[in-house]
Amino acid sequence: MNVIVVVCNSLHLGFLGAYGNAWIETPNLDRLAAEGTVFDHHFPENLTTLPTRRSWWTGRYGFADAEQGWTPLRCDELILPDLLWDKGVSTALISDVPLLREAGLGYGRGFDEVLWVRGGGYDPLIPAADPRTRKVQLGDEPGLRLPADDDANQGLWKKRWEQFLRNRSVLRTDLEANTGVARTVRTAIDWLERRAPRSDPFLLWLDLFSPHGPWDPPQPYRDQYAAVDPDEFEAGEEGDLVEESADVDEEIDIEDVPVLIDVPAGAVGDVLSEAELFRLRRTYAGTVTLVDRWLGELFEALRRMGRMDDTLLVFTSDQGEPLGEHGYVRRFRPWLYDELIHTPLVIRLPGGKFGGGRHQALVQTVDLLPTILGALGVRPGDNLDQPIHGHDLLPLIRGEQTKVRDYACMGMDVEEFAIRTHHWHLIVPVVSDPDEPRSAELYRKPEDRWEQNNVIEQYPEIADQLELALRRFVEALGRDALEDLAPLREIARYGAP
Fold first, then answer.
1. Domain boundaries, the chain
2. pLDDT tens digits, 280-317
């Protein structure tokens, strides 16, 4: 068996048909979901980009340790390709994620082949002195709005956006075939075709930057959903999704709102208006459809080569994308709400075996490594001085197990932790922010999808028990003794909401 992992960066779960969206076209991912197993409760353990890849490649929790966050991989830290290099499995990383390529981080090490597709986002590919960009001016792009003059971050965003414009100008990413996702998928197809005569098993890790911002899809994707109604993120008092209110429809003509292709992380009303937010969601939706279109090229190539019959195919994302659900866009704060922490996971077995189902088990990013090893028939062996925390998900798919954990624990920047069960989501601030003080919050699941109704005052006993379980988990993690944790049975006596 071979394994192909397809990863997207910053993919909002609410924009996928397989997870309930009815207005965004994602036919290729919909078909993958129909042929595979969709996991409805998949969560990272440590946000965001680099910490999640550490979780994927080590199978270990690290959210409670600042040294395992946005930090370089240690030279003695065994990762996924290290566990396969002597097992007869060829490994390749193909990616256009500029954050992985940054010098000194080590996120390209260990793979037999690494192919970087440059120029995505603020990747420092085209230097300022390049004569081809002599006429490129930040002021000529209305979709990029600098922070105010007195904002300390203005210089940072000016540098980022000037780099983005140079890359766009030289690479001509206004043409679909030149977009990062198109070039990266074609690189992956070329790699697969080159190794087609070989019979040894392989692992291909295809790491896509899109739909991460800047959101600059070419036409027709940019305007594909400009007039779509309703907006998926208006929520009722209980957090259930409802149509936009009539007054919003009357006040905002989305098609007349200028397109913002990138904004600094911040609050709605500061970095963008409510009307611009509604339009940004639709631009983001077009970017998601662009990603789906090129994943369709990949899937079709796999069918043509017969790889759909001998390859385990995984699709997932490292994180979601806050788009105004709690009054801010991008990763403005380490707030562990659903729009950031609830991520897709679809696993398709060779030939679509056991496909077409949905699984309700609580699963996390640490589970991907043992699942891949299980698919390849590889045991970690005795070369690991630290245990793998994750679980092989193949027994779940085959119906041999019903769950791998009672709850999912996670964190971001060691500033906020959270614990999630099927019925509850508890958020616990770890570091006090004097600018925006926060206290613990409790939400009922699944009805309060976007966590609009904090019920901690109504259910203080539930919150206490969940926080106790979370703190015990963190303490056991420090001792590397997760196997000592008892199931979270205390919650059952209070009943589900």
1. 2-405
2. 999 999 999 999 999 999 999 999 999 999 999 999 99
Domain 2-405 grouped into CATH 3.20.20.10: no
CA distance 162 to 169: 11
Looking at 96-100, 256-260, 293-297, 382-386, which range is the least confident one? 382-386
Mean pLDDT of the chain: 91
Rounded Cα distance, 71 and 74, in Å:
9
pTM for the model stands at 0.94
pLDDT of residue 121: 94
